[in-house]
Amino acid sequence: MSLLDEMPLDRTSVSAQTACDHCGQPVGNYPIFSNTAVFCCAGCEIVYDALHVSGLEATYYKLREAEGINNKPIVAISEKELDLIGLDSPQYVERHTILRADGNREALLFLDGLHCTACVWLIEQMPKLLVGVQEARVDYVRNQLRLVWDNQLVQLSQVAKWLAPFGYKLQPARQSNLKERSQDEQRLLIRLGISWALAGNVMLLALAFYSGLDMSNQTELTIAGRWMSLVLATLSLGIGGIVFFQKALQSLRMAWKIRSLNRLHMDVPISFGILIGYFYSFWATITHKGDVWFDSITVLTAALLTARWLHLKSTRLAMDASDQLLTLVPTMARKISGKWNGDMNQPFELVSSELLNPGEVVVVYAGEVFAVDGIIAAGETKVNNSVITGESVPISCAVGDRVQAGATNMTGVVHVAVQATGEQTRIGKLVAWVREGSEKPAEVVQWVDRFGGWFVLIVLVLAVFTGILWWDTGSEQAMSHVVALLVVTCPCALGMATPLALAIGSGRAARAGIYLKQTSVFDTLDVADTIVLDKTGTLTAGRMKLIDWEGDLTAMQQAAVLESQSIHPIAQAFLAAFPETEALKRQLRHTIKGVETHPFGIKGEINQSILMIGRPDWVLQDIIDADPFLLEILENYAHTGDTPLAIACDHRLVAVARAGDEVRKEAFEMIQQWQHQQKEVYILSGDHPEVVIQLGKALLISEDHLLGHQTPEMKQLFVENLKALGRKVLMLGDGVNDAAALRAADIGIAVQGSSTASMVSADVFVTSAGLVPVQNMLISSRKVTYVVKRNLTFSLLYNLIMALAAILGWVNPLVAAVAMPLSSLVVIGSSVLQRTFIKDSNL
Amino acid sequence: MNILMVMVPIAILLAAGAVYAFTWAIRSGQYEDTETPAIRMLWDDEETNIKKKTS
Hints:
The complex is a heterodimer.
Chain A: H1 3-6, E1 32-33, E2 38-39, H2 42-54, H3 57-67, H4 90-96, E3 98-99, E4 105-112, H5 117-124, H6 126-129, E5 133-139, E6 144-149, H7 156-163, E7 169-172, H8 175-210, H9 219-258, H10 267-287, H11 294-326, E8 332-336, E9 348-352, E10 361-364, E11 373-378, E12 381-384, H12 386-389, E13 395-397, E14 402-403, E15 408-409, E16 414-420, H13 426-439, H14 443-469, H15 475-488, H16 492-511, E17 514-516, H17 520-527, E18 530-534, H18 535-539, E19 540-551, H19 553-563, H20 569-577, H21 581-588, E20 593-598, E21 601-606, E22 609-614, H22 616-620, H23 628-638, E23 643-649, E24 652-663, H24 667-676, E25 680-684, H25 689-698, E26 706-707, H26 712-724, E27 729-733, H27 739-744, E28 747-750, H28 756-761, E29 764-766, H29 772-807, H30 813-832
Parallel strand pairs in A: 18-25, 18-27, 25-26, 27-28, 28-29
Antiparallel strand pairs in A: 1-2, 3-4, 4-6, 4-7, 5-6, 8-9, 8-10, 10-16, 11-14, 11-16, 12-13, 12-15, 17-29, 19-24, 20-21, 21-22, 22-23, 23-24
Chain B: H1 2-27, H2 36-40
């Protein structure tokens, strides 16, 4: 800490423009002073104090500055907002944390509020600051914290309370899912690594054969080399190849059961090729006759595993994200012990919320989150459903009313009769639905998989054909050509072509802040021909702005000063339009008198004149003298769909203005592009039709595509009707009122700031505001689909040419050793090098 | 040729060691998060005047 920081603050040097010592924003008119610093709000002060008390502030602010995101400060979370129910209970600790060999506890926890690298640093200082915490490791990408602590010295609730002032909310996760997925990935990674190591060694040995070892008279060495390859290849198949064999066997059984060739997975021909190659080489090694293919099959196995691992990694990210949604529901609940008798003071016990049965009664205190879906049995309260519906106004609930898991109990103590728990709750079902979606493969992947059966059939027919063709040259020669065909046509490039391109595409998308729930979105995005947009928040910024004004500047500035007394959205529009307001206000502070806010405007005395700002009809009734020029403009404003405003000074109309929710600046260009590409663009809004029509006209959308006064049901119906007409609909929205329509559309895209409901019902979630990411996604998904097609064409062509070569007898192990890995590499390269989801593309 | 009798076991031993190290690295989560460590290494090891809170 420098000496400068220690100096007491000179209060007279602080103006409204002084930067807040925490967040860097101007402190405004009501700064909060501490001895050494000044803040814009109490929240900033809490964070600053917490940092200061821990001695972390110097490094934290330095790191944050280095990242250049001064505009995104952390906001403290009050302890009331924390849901700590049962976090320290032995049941919770036993069930959801792991006891390590050294006696410490370990758990993976979700953290809400991580937004920069300084956050990572701050949280990882915890072991130095909190006695009992041994280790804190943050996974920045997954929003996870791995915590090791001594349960005797510190408890989870203390950790949560320590984190809260810095703005991080600890969300206890159910460990099982996370652990399981991470272990699945680890196991595959081990197989993958070992397979590559084995493949590398086999290739080295093979190099000796190709360079002429088996032609020389070093027969002993040749035999040793072959046996060595055999051992290594056996290991490779046992460790890596087994993954495909199991899957192939599964699909063979399935196909046999329903007698359908379509059910044969692509893994069947892959396993088939690998095994034929292996056993033929095995036989060749024992009998010292014929070729060995060990190098080809081991490299193939490793390459295929790579594709599979990349795919697993990308789906795991999506699954973990959906698990974070589940942490909204508490893991513990207070269950009434014994039979419920309606007495509010009945004793209770802490139990895991998943172990509750319907009919049992739980107690929920004010400030807690409901752990179950149920009906209030006693008590009354206000409930905030914003997590589920996005509606932030709390609703009153009394006996007999339904409450849902994930909602917050705001005011009173209630008894809730359990109806559903865990996955059966509404929020649980939503999460399950999301998960289901992420498991559903894209159509093109399904197509490739269904192709597996036909592939086997074609290859077998070709093999028989080759055998007959070469029969004259002797059975041994014919056999080797048949094996060459079977090995070389192993459809590994084909098997990797689609999943790899899609997995890499969705991974890139996630980095660009676009989360795809399932890769099948790519197919649909490419063919979408109708785009339905929600207005507020999607097409517009969702904030009032002064779009236009005419008249006396001084009057407008004074109006802004007067408006700064109000919190109305229009007032915000004035303040944004006149940044000098704060300075002016200090000058005129003593001349402001008798400010009244009316439903239609604001009135007050400033600089010895009476100013009125508000709805034209309200202001005009008080006017003696009105400039016809201004009146005409006012008339024009009224037809724009925006909110017209009149400003009067001493009963004289001096200025007129128009405030509106400004359309995002990229909207015009985007919509032109879409319409140019023959995509139909519709705007649906709950607003007045006139507003929608004016806005749509400015964007050059034809009038019959602009609909106002839309209820959620109407929006859904509209989308469904479009679909019934055979259109592929892409819906873009943010509010709860869009959720049903998002779900109904072929692709629903939820934009930043969406309610949980619409996020969950959408197929795509975009974390940045505006239409640019949407355009990015449309362009990129075309590229991804193109890459998929390119990969498929290439691999099919490869198989065709190699099959032909094998029939003609041109394929020997050397050709295969070059061609097969090369084909896989081409597909991997083609997938990795896709230029999709570039962050700063010039759109 | 006799040298092979020495070299092959040594090679196998080395390979086994590598496999063990690799398995250990994965199981202990070295490949779990490949992004955060990149951020972490940028911090200076300067001593902040951290005050330990004894709760």
